[in-house]
Amino acid sequence: MIYSMANAQSEKYADLLQNIGASKKVSLNGQWEIIVDPLENGFYSHRYTEKPNGYFKNDKMEEPSDLIEYDFDSDWQLMVPGDWNTQKEKLYYYEGTVWYKKNFDFKKGNNEVNYLYFEAINYEAIVYLNGEKLGTHLGGYTPFQFDVTDKLKSGENLVVVKVDNKRRREAIPTINTDWWNYGGITRSVHVISTPKTHISDYFIQLAKGSTNTIDGWVAVKNGKDGQTVTVEIPDLKKSIKATLKNGIAKFSFKAKLSLWSPKNPKLYDVNLNITSDKVVDQIGFRKIETSGSKILLNGEEIFLKGISIHEEAPFKTGRVVSIEECRILLKWAKELGCNFIRLAHYPHSEAMVREAEKMGFLIWSEIPVYWTVLFDNQDTYANAANQLTEMISRDKNRAAVVLWSVANETPEGTPRLTFLTKLASHARGLDNTRLITAALDTQGFRDGAKLIEDPLGEVVDVIGINNYCGWYSMKPEDCGGIRWASDFNKPMIMSEVGGGALQGLHGEINERWTEEYQADVYKNNIEMMRNIDFLAGASPWILMDFRSARRHLRRIQGDFNRKGLISEQGMKKQAFFVLRDYYLNENK
Ligand code: GCU
Q: What angle do CA 247, 252, 256 make, to 5 degrees?
């Protein structure tokens, strides 16, 4: 376990290898055999106790009289990574258990440690290797790994995963979300091999408030106290030595840096060396802070010209599974004139975050504490805190990530405030170099102005506001005149604003669902935003139409939330150009 630098020995990071993209690994992506098991018959006996010889055994008939009532190898198959809902018509609405099985050959190296690494599985995953349970993971959008060195064999191996995406009231997210509950092994699976003594984690960023002091630590598994860790940044002709103590080597050194920014998304090769292992990562360095109602990047005020994005794949729909799909979404955001993206409402893939960083997007990353979760439930809190830990652990070296969001549209109340205040301090305990935020949807009124007074405003560094003037309330033409006030001398981001339209549907400006209506909503809300002097950015809802089980107007929505500026088939709507003009022409 590694404790944070911020306030030492208080918060622990998740056990997650860094930069797995560059590690020595065997991919387990591809076709997996599956069994759809709505009654969890492969797990529970008729006495509802865990079966000792469940489907994870992958039992096979040996005698003609044997009774084995399942057989992965003559059952259905699914692609990994991928959700099951868009791969099989019969699983479109399916929520429950699906067993995944894969046989794979593996050649074990000498003196190596092997990890079974899952980039994400929605929602509950129980993982077995060669008939042995490795463990369980909750949460559909963050990675987890198991050290399988003692369980992995040279030759044929069997991995079985019980995946269950049943929605639960006490879960994170809870039972109702405005996005489709895509189930499955939705991101890549790897067997990663490292030397026995290896670099297991690191955190290398600018010291809080600095633009020339790099602070960091490197964690070494199976290392010895006194062992040397070398940190090199060839572009800077920097090579410093740090000494291992209790598995951690800490360092701090001055450097004259080309700071990362949307205009200059400079990433440095950073080489971490110990005698038996070497890890190379591409890391940017930037300072992010607030000053009153301003957001400062590298000491300069910046306006976050953003857009919200769901991890819905363009064209084929379903969960994004490839870097190409990430690039399409990011290219559209670039065309829109954005320097900022809100990845909603859960951590998106590492590939998306790294690609966005290369393209110069500042990033808002969020855990799915969404709407009315059970704020007074300890397990719910532990689950949320764990997802927050995994999100920060995975992306703590990404300069582009500047905002950790702990919640979206949660109802005011004491249990909620306690819950989110604890989460915010947990985040600060893990990483004090970034800003904490949340998207609020409750406002008051004072002197005719909409008033931001939610007590959570006191806890966060940046206040996100979701407001649908002209769609869920009021008429578009009434929005431009709205005034805003805030009880907090903090930056506000209009984290959601917008309206729906069916691409290609045209009509009068006051006709719902037409592109003209949506464009008018944007025009008037942009007018409103121009008059908010503590506005530091916006991420309108949303870049592309996305699937949601809450959207039943079949002739318009057809299971899609139509607030995209682009249809899921890549067709831009009029409002796309309204927002683009605002971002490109207003020297915000
Ligand atoms: C909410 C919510 C989104 C949702 C949007 C909408 O603000 O945060 O997840 O999709 O409104 O209603 O379209």
A: 145
